[in-house]
Design brief:
The protein is an all-alpha fold. The chain has four domains: 112 residues, no CATH class; 116 residues; 52 residues, no CATH class; 188 residues, no CATH class. It has 18 helices and four strands. The strands form two sheets. Strands 1-2 form a two-stranded antiparallel sheet. A two-stranded antiparallel sheet has the order 3-4. A hairpin with a 2-residue loop joins strand 1 and strand 2. The longest helix is centred in the first third of the chain and has 50 residues. The chain is rod-shaped. The protein starts with a helix and ends with a helix.
Length: 582
């Protein structure tokens, strides 16, 4: 009952003294001896000492653990600050103060913040390193990079992060430049393939499959750039060769069309071929302008026209011969067209000459004829002026013989103006002839051949003209002397017999057709002057154009209208008889 009361907290506070008192009371009731009592008290004290000792050991162990945790926390703090590149952290205790638990409680939130900052920094490092690795892989040609790079958590400082960011920016710039080059190359390939009529996708995917826009990612490696550059150069060379081939075909088509007078409607079918005849490589940008089927079409047309040209060779050759004859005719060069045509016919029928060679030879003849005509042009222009002046001279002589020229008839004032201009022009004839002779001689000395005008030596024509002009002047002087002599005789007769009308018929006042020093029917130089003395009785002319006076006979070339001196004398004698008749 006493023991139960001692353990009941409702009976009062239980202490060691009350328990010991209870124990004494129990021992008293039981009658325990003092020895037993002392023995039991020693045992109780020992047991209490063991409990205290155990508790002290537990408390010391807990303190050691707390100190170790505090040390680890401080080491982790230092490591985190070092890894993050921080010298200190805001809010961290500068000095150790307070109990161990207080110190742990103070450093715990700092570690939490640093761990969060480290996790964020590791993510940033991972992101930037991933991008760097990806771009490096793209530059190296490896587009399938899926593994994440390992982040070195020993150095997570902002300085290191900035270095990675700088490296990333350089790589991004290089990637942008490479991508720009790739796009330029791809654009060039697209344009060239369009002009050449080639499949763009098959061409570009042969370089690298990623260059197809459908993949969404394009290779920017050195190998891809090199292969793209090589492809562009190959396509440009192909474009250059095709353009050269097409221009050759276009020139051949134009030559064949011009030879065979192909109508415009048929030529328009090949406008897509001829429009680039003079274009440079860079100027040809129309899609399929240099496609293979277009070039093949032009080749087929050229072959067809070549076969047609061979069948029409005679017609084409005679056309060129006609052109050659026209050039020589305008240049007043005499040739033998019948002989040339017979020769052309014989060459074509024999088959010993290629049509192209024959046409090329005739083209060379035409070129030489044009050069010769050009060298003769200045002299021929002066010959035309000389002949035109001679025609005016002839007209002026007829005009001067007309006794009614000053009458107030219709158109008389126009003839008067023409006569004034003709006199000025006629006065220039001697100088013009001298100039023409000098230029003709210079031309002959320069080329070592004779200058012929429609087969007649021009110097001979000029020499003959000078001779006839001199004879005409002499004839005029003789006529003036005869007229003066007759006038003197008439005056003497009138003084002796007196003036009275003559019953004889009066002499007609019409103009006397006399010898024309100018040549043709109206006194103009003949366009085809022959100096064959044996056939025409005129003075013969040597090869160099000089006169040969050894042959006698009437003077004057063929086609010159001339009247012999006997006719002129009979005309004069008739005049004298009419004047002297009583």
């Amino acid at each position: 009952m006493a023991v139960t009361d001692a353990q009941n907290p409702l009976l009062g506070e239980t202490t060691c003294g009350t328990l010991l008192q209870k124990l004494q009371e129990i021992w008293d009731e039981v009658g325990e001896s003092d020895e037993e009592r002392d023995k039991m008290l020693i045992q109780i004290e020992q047991e209490c000492l063991d409990v205290y000792k155990k508790k002290v050991e537990q408390a010391a162990k807990s303190r050691a653990q707390l100190l170790e945790a505090l040390s680890d926390a401080r080491i982790e703090l230092a490591r985190l600050l070092s890894a993050l590149g921080e010298k200190c952290f805001a809010g961290s205790p500068e000095k150790a103060s307070g109990t161990i638990k207080e110190q742990l409680a103070a450093i715990a939130p700092i570690l939490e913040q640093l761990w969060e900052q480290k996790a964020e920094r590791v993510k940033e490092f991972s992101d930037v390193q991933t991008q760097i690795k990806k771009i490096c892989g793209e530059i190296a040609g490896n587009l399938n990079i899926n593994d994440n790079p390992t982040v070195d958590d020993a150095d997570l400082s902002l300085k290191k992060l900035d270095e990675y960011h700088a490296q990333l920016q350089e790589l991004q710039k290089e990637k942008s430049d490479r991508l720009h080059k790739v796009l330029e190359f791809v654009s060039s390939v697209h344009d060239l393939c369009a002009v050449l009529g080639m499949d763009f996708f098959s061409t570009v995917t042969e370089v690298h499959p990623s260059l197809n826009d459908s993949t969404g990612m394009q290779s920017i490696s050195n190998d891809t750039l090199a292969r793209l550059a090589k492809t562009v150069l190959a396509l440009k060379e192909e474009k250059k060769q095709r353009l050269h081939k097409l221009q050759e075909l276009a020139n051949q088509l134009m030559d064949l069309w011009n030879l065979m007078d192909t109508p415009k409607e048929e030529r328009k079918l090949f406008d897509h071929v001829t429009r680039n005849m003079l274009a440079s490589v860079d100027e040809v940008t129309v899609p399929k302008a240099l496609a293979l089927d277009l070039i093949e079409q032009a080749e087929v047309e050229v072959e067809r026209l070549d076969l047609l040209k061979a069948s029409r060779m005679k017609e084409i050759a005679f056309k060129k011969q006609a052109e050659l004859e026209e050039i020589y005719a305008r240049a007043h060069v005499e040739i033998a067209p019948d002989v040339a045509r017979e020769k052309i016919m014989a060459l074509i029928d024999s088959g010993n000459v290629e049509p192209a060679e024959l046409l090329a030879d005739m083209d060379n003849q035409i070129s030489r004829a044009k050069e010769e005509a050009l060298s003769r042009k200045e002299i021929l222009d002066k010959v035309e002026k000389w002949m035109s002046a001679c025609e005016e001279e002839s007209w002026l002589e007829d005009y001067n013989r007309d006794e009614n020229r000053y009458n107030a008839s219709r158109g008389a004032h126009l003839n008067l103006k023409r006569a004034e201009k003709a006199r000025i022009l006629v006065n220039k004839i001697p100088a013009l002839v001298d100039t023409l002779v000098a230029k003709t001689r210079a031309w002959e000395e320069d080329r070592g051949i004779q200058f012929a005008y429609d087969g007649v030596p021009l110097l001979a024509m000029l020499d003959e003209y000078a001779m006839l002009r001199q004879e005409r002047e002499e004839e005029k002087q003789r006529m003036r002397d005869q007229k003066k002599f007759h006038e003197q005789q008439s005056t003497e007769q009138e003084s002796i017999f007196g003036s009275r009308p003559s019953p004889a018929r009066q002499v007609s006042t019409k103009k006397v057709v006399g010898s024309r020093a100018n040549g043709g029917p109206n006194g103009t130089p003949s366009r085809r002057l022959s100096l064959n003395a044996h056939q025409n009785g005129s003075r013969s002319t040597t090869k160099d154009g000089r006169r040969d006076n050894r042959l006698s006979g009437p003077v004057g070339p063929v086609n010159y209208v001339s009247i012999s001196k006997d006719d002129a004398a009979s005309h004069v004698s008739g005049t004298d008889t009419a004047t002297a008749s009583p």
